[in-house]
Write a structure and sequence with these properties.
heterodimer; A: alpha/beta; Rossmann fold; 8-stranded mixed sheet; 5-stranded antiparallel sheet; 11 helices; B: alpha/beta; 7-stranded mixed sheet; 13 strands; binds adenosine-5'-triphosphate; binds iron/sulfur cluster; binds magnesium ion
Amino acid sequence: MLLNVQNLNVMIPTQGGPLHAVQDVSFSVSKGETLCIVGESGCGKSVTALSLLGLLPKSAKRSASRMTFDGQDMITMSDKQIRALRGNRLSMIFQEPMTALNPLHTLGRQLTDVYMAHRRGNREAARQRAVYLLERVGIAKAAERLGQYPHELSGGLRQRVVIAMALMCEPELIVADEPTTALDVTIQAELLRLLAELQKSMGLGMIMITHDLGLVSRIADRVVVMYAGQVIENALAKELFENPKHPYTRALLGSVPDPSHPRMQPLPSIPGTVPSLVQKMEGCHFRDRCAFASEECRVPIPLVGVGAEHVARCIKTGAQAPNARSTAP
Amino acid sequence: MSKDAILSLSNVTHDFGGRRVITGRSPTIRAVEDVSFDVRKGDILGIVGESGSGKTTLAKIMLGLLPPTQGEVLLDGTPIIEMSRKRIAERIQFIFQDPYSSLNPRQSVGQIVGYPLYLRGQENAAERDRKARELLDIVGLSSRFFDAYPSQMSGGQRQRVAIARALITRPDLLICDEPTSALDVSVQSQVLNLLLELREEFGLTYVMVSHNMAVIQHMTTRVAVMFLGRIVEMDTSEKVFGTPQHPYTRLLLNSTLSVNQGAGVPDLNVDAEARHAMRDHPSYVSQRV
Ligand SMILES: Nc1ncnc2c1ncn2[C@@H]1O[C@H](COP(=O)(O)OP(=O)(O)OP(=O)(O)O)[C@@H](O)[C@H]1O
Ligand SMILES: Nc1ncnc2c1ncn2[C@@H]1O[C@H](COP(=O)(O)OP(=O)(O)OP(=O)(O)O)[C@@H](O)[C@H]1O
Ligand code: SF4
Ligand SMILES: [Mg+2]
Ligand SMILES: [Mg+2]
């Protein structure tokens, strides 16, 4: 197992009180495996990713019962040890490319710097690898682009540079936070195929955070669904799409726009909004928006097995829920 | 120019570059080439295309933020470059691609959303706050965010702030660059439903740039497809999705990842030859639209 995370908790102090961004989250990724994390905006996906890389805000408090990368304990690692992993064996592609790019440096400088920081070798070797990777991520005339600054690129070109940067040191695990939303679908398809190829040839493990369920259905081996700080469902991809158990997962699948839906008519959505993460909520976090909610949902709900390698956090995962593609309850 | 046009673009071209570098001048990049169309009242015009094909540049030109190198943009018949920011802002608002850099990190959410009203200077502070809270409610953010700062919010939450800010002055035309790409599907549905409702209620017109073909198909009346700075196909939404004419449009449609577990990612096999063929292929711009 490449990465194993058990009972991860992240608390961020805010003016209104402690914000419980991640609550008892567990998952694991094997070599060559793609784990997709999906869930409502603000449910803690990015904070989960950042906590793996030691990139949380300073004030945040992280705890976990277990967190290992390739057998090494990450909980007790020093900042220096984490930095040595990051960008090297463990790479992150951020949601917003500008957070990963320095506006004052040329692309060439930034790409070669990551390489030089972790690998011995000269700048020329680094430059060659940069050009090679930029071409692989679909940037034509890559050598000419090396002298450009980030603001001179379109959103999608910037994101491709960030992806190339993440691959500079041949990582073993990539954590990609919404890496393709800024890209056109053609480039997206090409990049996903490139990543799949690297997974096959190098055993690259990948955590892909995305809102795009179409994409998830095409690439995921396993899917973790989060809601309001918690994992509410975790299953193999085939099982999740064919047999979603949690009412939130079902509603999410039902909200995907598709051509069978009458144009310009309201799309199914889930009424209401996510609860605040500032006070710890007792009972099911989805309760205020769930059509099946009842008194029994007010007590803490555990993740329970609902099938082979399939867990869900709901006491009524049985028969009464509608099927996946129909409207939210 | 048709008589119900709000915006009218004729032969708009934009070049970037010519920046001074050590070795002389950097090469110019033609970001937009010879684009002409009208945005008519009630339209929802979708703009799709390759990344780097000039969509955001075109959106900025339509907003009067960027004077085109050649060609002209008319807003209600007046050249937009001659109009003040304030006058343009009364008619056109925008939501930009990236909810991170488009919000001022030093302003609270309440201030950000109320800011266009402050610029307009018609309401007092209490009235501005009341309207800002109303808009936050409309976009589905609880009022506890009123005093929060953008750095404390997730990507999707920030995008909703941007939408609230754009709608607070009740503009006629809203230009949205990837309005929902930071949102999860359920919130995306809420926002798209909201945009459709507001259109009914206030007679809004939209220009919507997106990479999400399912969203464009659902939401738009007309679609323009951009490739290498040019519009290679433009027609009603039904036509573009039903009977795509240009090879690049067909490629876009083939690349779309609908929910289909186990189907994998299509191998598009776009080699240099295919790209040349697409570049040299004539454009299809329907005269009826
Ligand atoms: N630096 C911070 N200070 C305070 N609160 C924060 C901070 N960063 C994130 N949060 C809060 O933590 C929660 C989880 O945020 P996170 O960014 O992980 O969401 P997400 O699932 O990635 O959402 P999205 O899909 O919109 O990116 C949110 O409620 C957010 O408001
Ligand atoms: N300020 C600038 N200076 C130089 N070149 C620029 C600048 N802004 C954009 N460009 C270039 O203009 C072209 C079009 O960029 P634009 O941002 O309009 O693309 P886009 O279609 O919006 O792409 P995306 O879908 O990736 O957002 C790109 O080649 C880009 O690198
Ligand atoms: S536990 Fe209750 S409220 Fe929560 S999802 Fe299940 S039925 Fe709905
Ligand atoms: Mg996020
Ligand atoms: Mg753009």
